[in-house]
Each structure stands twice: as C-alpha cells, then as structure tokens.
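User: Quick sanity check before I run a bigger batch. Here is a single chain. Can you write out its predicted 3D structure?
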Amino acid sequence: MEIERKFTIKELPADLESYPFHVIEQAYLNTDPVVRVRRENETFYLTYKGKGLMAREEHNLPLNEASYYHLLEKADGNIISKKRYLIPLTDPKFSDTLNQPPEGYSLTIELDVFDAPFAPLVLAEVEFGSKNAAESFIAPDWFDEDVTYDPTFHNSFLSKKVFQ
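Assistant: Done. Predicted structure follows.
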C-alpha cells in the first residue's frame, strides 16, 4: 500500500544540490488502472497502481533494460522526465497529539523537479506508514498547496496533457 501526500512548494531549498537524487524517466501504458514503466537511474521496472489518490495499492516488478525500452515504445502520451531529490525531514510534526512519533523519527521528502515540457513544475511527496499519519501530517513552511486530492497533479494525468 502506498500512502502519500503531495504538495506544491513555495521555493526550492537553497542547498538542493547537496541532497542525493535519482534521474527518473517514466511512461504510461494505461492510466485506469495505472500501468507504467520507469527508469530510475539504471534500474528499470513496471508498476501497477490501484485506484485512489492518497492511499492505493502499488506493485513493482523488475524489468531489464531491453524490456523497458520495448514497453516504452508502446506507451501513450508524454514521457515524463524529472530529477527526484531525497530530502530528510527529521522530527516531522503531526496534529494527532496522541500518536506522536518518537524523537528523532524521520521521513523523506521526495522533491520532483520536472524537465520540459512540464518545467517549471516542482512537487514534494511524502510517504507514510499509515493513513492516520498522512492525514495528521503538518507540512513544513516551505511547502505550499496540498494537491494530494487533485488528480491533475498526478503523473498519470500529466502523461495525457496536451501541449499547444
């Protein structure tokens, strides 16, 4: 089960290049249900995602490079390229006062900086171990709008976007 919240941001962190990152390319074979292929650095896989916006079933299957490129040719719509920065969020804040995580607890912000034609789109995603944690998460100050429930910010939707 993937449980994540998604946000736009106010500004990029000044020290962004100091964080580790992955170069990601992905394309969609289907968007309902979601079936995508992804290259993350030099790792390739096929992903199935069930219905949902904040919480949904997700299964990843490994692919070899040849299989990835074979399936990529069959994808519909836009190929999405982005750089994903992995930013630690130590001692995150939650509104649920009864279920606070222990001191030193950490989450990871996955900050996606999209390449053309989607640039300057930047989205921050945070994954959680439970729906309760996701729902009670208090976003850091540099996050802007919560777009978790806006399907237009999901990559499967972006894959179908038409550019003039």
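Residues 88 and 118 are 25 Å apart (CA to CA).

User: Great, the batch can go ahead then.
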